[in-house]
Design brief:
three-stranded antiparallel β-sheet, seven-stranded mixed β-sheet, 12 strands, 14% strand, binds (4S)-5-carbamimidamido-4-hydroxy-2-oxopentanoic acid, 13 helices, alpha/beta, globular
Length: 382
């Protein structure tokens, strides 16, 4: 039979931003595109879900302040962030970290014209910052722990860092954060961190709030429970600010929302407690096994490699060598398998991502194995 399907021109493959690529995958059982957690519940997590009616009633009964405080204690404590400012309204709960990001962006926009932003990173961060009119200066992620960032810091009002980074998994070390925060303090710059992937990597569990506090810099941290547990997007993005930040974050927060559902906060508390009770170690093992499954499933395919050998994030990049990542993405789509092409992560220079794909690891092993098999056969045919 004659092959009738025409190969789309590459412009037709330009679906839009990364999230728009992720939308296409949402109805496929072989969706390994977005980084939201979609694996099955563990036994401990299933018990919490079985108890949802009680959780709802308890959340309705208790004072909101108490529910918030308990959720903070459980989540920040789980991840080693003991010096978080729990006592004076500086931990603001948002529906998602992107909502927190939008609030931060709006408050930055009134105070400065440009921001230094880690490169590469998930494209909704540059898009939100540009959306409020800020100019962006890229900083390669490898440079962020360096001593001398004068060429970059001289022209901006804020430095924004995703750590662990998405998609590379790279973590800013304690010493690196100290150096960066010191330079920001010297120049009176805002240092903003997005730690949405923190839970996956113990290297990110040193007490960031102590380092930031000691530096005296003006800091903001966006914490996110959304990537960690398969809670069907019931999650919190926390917008945490330094006492000396000097930006109208609380006012802009009040323009956007009154607060997050206490039911969701109580759920986050329970999942955090389960994680502290062994669940986090189980999750780390689960992600490591899925990473091994992908690497072994693609072993021996000519010309490919894994650019982030030390990553512990719940995503894995695959470099497809001389092939075009977008062509591989398109062929996979014919098998109903959805990955993420990486160009848009390289927001200042998209061609840098021409030969990489990102695979989500927070998936049950069976569909991940099936999707990896399809990827292997597509790669071998090209
Ligand atoms: C990832 C998408 C947006 C984001 C997906 C993500 N959310 N655009 N508000 O959650 O790595 O797949 O971060």
């Amino acid at each position: 039979m004659q092959e009738t399907r025409t190969v789309p021109a590459s412009s037709e493959l330009d679906v839009g931003n990364l999230t728009q690529f992720e939308y296409l995958a949402l109805n496929s059982p072989l969706n390994i595109a977005d980084a939201h957690a979609r694996q099955g519940l563990t036994a401990g997590q299933a018990r919490i879900i079985d108890d949802l009616p009680n959780l709802f009633l308890k959340a309705a009964e208790l004072p909101v302040e108490e529910v918030e405080r308990e959720a903070h204690r459980a989540y920040f404590g789980l991840l080693g962030q003991h010096s978080y400012p729990g006592d004076d309204g500086r931990v603001l709960a948002c529906y998602s970290s992107s909502v927190a990001m939008e609030i931060l962006a709006r408050s930055l926009a009134g105070a400065m014209s440009s921001v230094a932003l880690i490169h590469p990173t998930f494209d909704n961060i540059p898009d939100i910052l540009r959306g409020v009119g800020l100019d962006l200066v890229p900083v390669a992620e490898e440079r962020l722990g360096e001593d001398d960032l004068d060429d970059i810091l001289g022209s901006v009002g804020c430095v924004f860092v995703t750590t662990p980074n998405n998609p590379t998994g790279r973590v800013l070390s304690e010493e690196g954060l100290r150096r960066l925060a010191g330079q920001c303090a010297e120049r009176d710059l805002v240092l903003a961190l997005d730690t949405s992937f923190r839970g996956f990597d113990p290297a990110g569990h040193y007490d960031h709030y102590r380092v930031l506090g000691d530096s005296g810099c003006r800091w903001v941290v966006i914490e996110d429970t959304g990537k960690l547990w398969p809670t069907l997007d019931l999650k919190v993005g926390w917008l945490v600010t330094a006492a000396n930040l000097g930006l109208p974050v609380a006012k802009i927060y009040s323009d956007i929302l009154l607060g997050v559902s206490p039911m969701v906060l109580a759920l986050v508390q329970r999942f955090s407690e389960d994680a502290a009770d062994g669940g986090l170690a189980d999750l780390h093992r689960f992600v490591a096994e899925n990473r091994a499954l992908v690497r072994e499933g693609l072993a021996g395919v000519p010309g490919i490699h894994f650019p982030d050998p030390h990553s512990r994030a719940s995503v894995e990049r695959v470099n497809v060598g001389a092939r075009s990542a977008l062509d591989v993405w398109s062929s996979l789509r014919d098998h109903n398998v959805y990955v993420l092409p990486c160009q848009k992560f390289h927001w200042a220079n998209p061609p840098e991502g021409n030969s990489t794909l990102r695979i989500a690891l927070a998936r049950s092993a069976a569909p991940l194995r099936e999707a990896t098999r399809a990827l292997r056969s597509v790669l071998l045919s090209r």
